[in-house]
Design a protein that fits this description.
With 443 residues, the chain is an alpha+beta fold. 50% of the residues lie in helices and 19% in strands. The chain folds into three domains: 44-114, no CATH class; 118-150 and 301-443, no CATH class; 152-299, Roll (Pdz3 Domain), CATH 2.30.42.10.
């Protein structure tokens, strides 16, 4: 990269990537904090501040309830500060109000609206509302998309095979339909890809149906005669299925007769491979060597309730797959190179924004699921960490000692900063910025 290319990148990337990143992140932070805010108000707790971002306030307003709504300089988070708390994280509280040079105790009325005086159930509800509303937001977005335009998918068909890969060696053939993996039904190619990624290096039971095709018939009557004869013979041999099928006739092309064989089970062990996307980010994947269809996605039409069910199923699948991948990283069977930070999120946000509003909204919904899941993790400083502390308080019958809570929050802070540093470093290295900077310095 020469100096002119570097200047071009700096000038154009903010427009293409930083803008969409700030929009989607601010939206999801607002949704998350609004969850805390609205449940706090429902529980009778007074909210002092509602902030999008950290640092210096850029602009804001104070509503009739005394809540300061504001946007701050650093748009990488947000918070809702409750009455009685001395910090946005609700880690410490005060029992008085400063008036001039002295501090007076809270009145009984003020104590009623303070967060720290609320029973455990109310505090837990307020804390859990943030990540919960992220899940609800994602479900609403996906429900609307599936209802209006249908649920997109690619059929679980082997459109092609990669040479010298496990699937080919195991006997998978082009045009085969994948029915199940390890006993789990596969309905779409995305399911096959995700389940393969979660079983790298492990033998899998693959249930497939071979699809047999005749050569195209130039004479349509000969095609009909062959079809009828083949169909009669097939249905006598397979009275209970599988079904005899044929391609839909296209008048511009000679008709092709094809049928499905009885399902068979084969053993395939996916290879562990590294895939690099167009941004340079590396992904550890399992690869059997089955290439999916390259045509445009099919869609499953849904009514409102069907769309809602599909949206719930999608959010659950994202959650379970992410937790399984995290578990593999903790156990050391999966590389932590896949952890991505704000640079990677910004790159993907810009990419989806350039694909159109539907793609960008879909990305926002999927990112909302991940934001909700991360905040539910029982790590101090995250919502899940506070919920864990409230659970201990319920079991013990009294809160944890203040010093214990303080040390837990410090450990949580160090852990989260470490994860953020690792994720950001992964982004920088995988995008090649370190090598580009070295080459620029060396001339």
């Amino acid at each position: 990269m020469n100096i002119m290319e570097l200047v071009h990148t700096v000038v154009t990337k903010p427009v293409q990537y930083v803008g969409p990143f700030i929009v989607v992140l601010s939206l999801l932070i607002f949704v998350h904090e609004w969850g805390h805010y609205i449940v706090a108000r429902m529980c009778g707790v007074k909210v002092i501040k509602f902030s999008i971002g950290f640092g210096k306030e850029l602009f804001g307003r104070t509503d009739k309830n005394g809540t300061r709504w504001k946007f701050c300089l650093i748009p990488l988070g947000g918070y809702v500060q409750m009455f009685g708390d001395t910090d946005p994280a609700s880690a410490h509280h005060t029992e008085g109000v400063e008036e001039g040079d002295h501090c007076r105790p809270f009145t009984p009325e003020e104590k009623k609206v303070a967060f720290y005086t609320q029973p455990i159930a109310k505090r837990a509800a307020i804390v859990a509302a943030g990540p919960s509303i992220n899940y609800l937001f994602a479900i609403l977005i996906l429900t609307g998309l599936y209802w209006v335009q249908g649920e997109p998918y690619l059929p679980a068909v082997a459109a092609a095979l990669i040479k010298d890969h496990p699937a080919e060696a195991a006997g998978v053939q082009v045009d085969d339909k994948i029915l199940s993996l390890n006993g789990k039904t596969v309905e779409r190619f995305e399911d096959l890809r995700e389940m393969t990624n979660l079983n790298m290096g492990k033998e899998m039971d693959v249930e497939v149906v071979h699809v047999v095709k005749d050569q195209p018939y130039k004479d349509y009557q000969k095609y009909l005669d062959a079809r009828n004869a083949r169909k009669d013979a097939w249905e006598k041999a397979h009275p209970k299925g599988p079904a005899f099928k044929e391609d839909a006739r296209d008048e511009k092309k000679p008709p092709v007769l094809h049928w499905e064989t009885t399902p068979v089970h084969i053993k395939v062990t996916p290879r562990k491979e590294i895939e690099t996307d167009r941004f340079g980010f590396k992904h550890e994947i399992g690869r059997m060597g089955i290439v999916g269809p390259t045509t445009e996605m099919d869609t499953i039409p849904h009514n409102l309730f069907g769309a809602m069910g599909a949206a719930v199923a999608t959010t659950w699948k994202i959650t379970s797959d992410t937790l399984q991948a995290l578990g593999q990283m903790i156990m050391g069977t999966r590389s932590t190179d896949e952890l991505g930070g704000i640079i990677r999120i910004g790159a993907y946000a810009g990419d989806f924004a350039q694909q159109g509003i539907i793609a960008f909204i879909t990305f926002a919904g999927l990112l909302s699921v991940n934001l909700g899941l991360v905040n539910f993790l029982p790590i101090p400083l995250l919502d899940g960490g506070y919920l864990a502390m409230y659970a201990m308080e319920k079991i013990r019958g009294r809160p944890l000692h203040e010093r214990v809570q303080e040390y837990a929050l410090r450990v949580g802070l160090v852990f989260l900063l470490g994860i953020m540093f690792l994720a950001t470093w992964n982004d920088i290295v995988q995008m090649g910025w370190v090598d580009k900077l070295r080459s620029l310095i060396s001339g």
